[in-house]
Every structure is written in C-alpha cells, then in structure tokens.
Amino acid sequence: MNEREKKYSLIIPHYKDIVRLRRLLVSLPKRNDLQIIVVDDFSVNILDLKKLENEFDNLEIYQLPSNQGAGAARNFGLAQAIGKYLLFADADDEFLTGAFDIFDSKLIVEGDVFYFLSKAIQEISGLHSIRADYFNQLCIEYLEDETENKLLNLKLGHCVPWSKVYLRDFIVSTKIIFDETFVANDVYFNVINALLAKRIFVFNDYVYKVYRLSDSLSSTSSASRLITRVSVLAKVARKRKELGIVEKMYGSGYLLDAAKFGFPTFCKIFLIILRSDLHFGLMRFFEPTRWIKYLKNRSTLSAEKK
Q: Which of 34, 175, 182, 303 lies most in the core, judged by the most C-beta atoms within 10 Å?
C-alpha cells in the first residue's frame, strides 16, 4: 500500500480542545492505512495544532478560515478523504481498544453503511451516560428482529455519525453532505444517507466511547439552537417525503421545549412545524407513557449535566 492508498479516512472536527483531541488521537492505532483528518473550526493558533503532526503518524491538520461549525469542518474533511471507508469522531470522544481490528474483521462484506455500538460515560464522574443508549437500542432491536420495520427505525433514528463506517464511494455518489449549521448539523447527513443506502450491516460490537460533557453544545440549549434543530428536522421531513417514507415525523415535543423560551420562540417553532412536513401529533400529549419517558429523560440529562 503506497502513501496515497488508505483503507480508512477518519474525519475529526475540532474546536478549542487540544487536550481532549490528543486523548482521541492516542486511542487510535498506529497503522499506515489510516488517514487522520483534523479540521479546526478557526478556534486556536494553527501552529499549536500543527505540533500534533510531529506526535502522530498519518495526521493531517487543517483550519477553516472562519468559525463555521462542525458541519463545515466535516465537509472540508470529506474533500480531503482518500480512504475506501469513512469514519467520523468528535474531538472529545475516543475509540475503544481494538476498534479497528473489529472494523477489519467485519468489513469483509460489500456494504454502504456499517453500524456498531458505543459506550457512553459522564466525563467528570466516570458513571454511565445515556448518550448512546438510544442508538445502541436501535442496533440491538434490529439484530434481534431483522425486519424492514426495524431497519427503517434504525435508519431514521440513528442520526449521529459516530460508531458508523461509510463506504466513501457511496457518500460521493449521494452528494449528501453535512448541514453547515452550528447545531444539528449531522442529522440530515446520517438519516438521508441511511435511507439511500441499499447495503446496510449492523454489528454487536462496541468500538467507540462517547463522553457526556457538561459544557458541550449537545448539553446546552437556547432559543436559537432550538429553532435551528426544528428547521433541520423540517428539512429531513421534506426529504423523507420525497423518498416515499410514509412514517410521520412529529414536532410536538419541541413545542414543549419552546415554551420555556417564551411566546415569540413558541410561535416561531409552531410556524416551522405548520409550514413543513412535520406533524403536530397533539394526541401524543395524552399518552402517559410518553410523559413518563420524557420526564425520566429530562431528569437523567439534568443530573448528567451537573
């Protein structure tokens, strides 16, 4: 294998966290067929980042010309990727020992998207976090009952890029890239590419560790971020409809979240849902099991953020 032939291209968006980025890089195996692409979102002195290239083999450091978000960073990384397979990692997470050995052993079949499992912990306490539970559950439920319905649930629900391997030629063919928003920039990419994939494989192997950080974008909320999230979901709903997916997407839960930001935000969210292919699903408000699940998740998330 020559210098320009790689089996894997790993794309890592980075923002103001060289210490945790180094932790991620340390978790990677030393192998010549792995291309490591770090794209900084104009957050630190590029010379400080470039020092990492002296510590780690096959590492490429780039920097965006302005702060554009993780979606833009991943898209830049996609343009640099040369590997047969694409992987994505957040700079504050890490791969589990032996992850790439697992990839080697499983990626012997021709596929477009490969799903794996993740472990999640709270960084401060080291206790279990629920961040990966839902995505793991989707994978396990499909493995236990490999029906079209379970596969569709997996495609629609697994909206994060980690713990997946994509065939690069497939991603190039779909032309579906990441949204360049500051939040929810990975949802459209993951859901729509999954819906377009014809060859999907799911494995019961843990390959990735995701950390719950109290100060991360996924752990904080604001009116503008909520509006962006719902706007992205509306875009996904529109594309799903174009692809013939009849299952409804609901926006009613976001109305609850919008209420705490005041009437103007509530009205904006209401209008986004009204004008899109999202559904209100107001009868869902009267299902006790949904309230129990909603309140339990809110309580757990609140505890993990402390």
A: 34
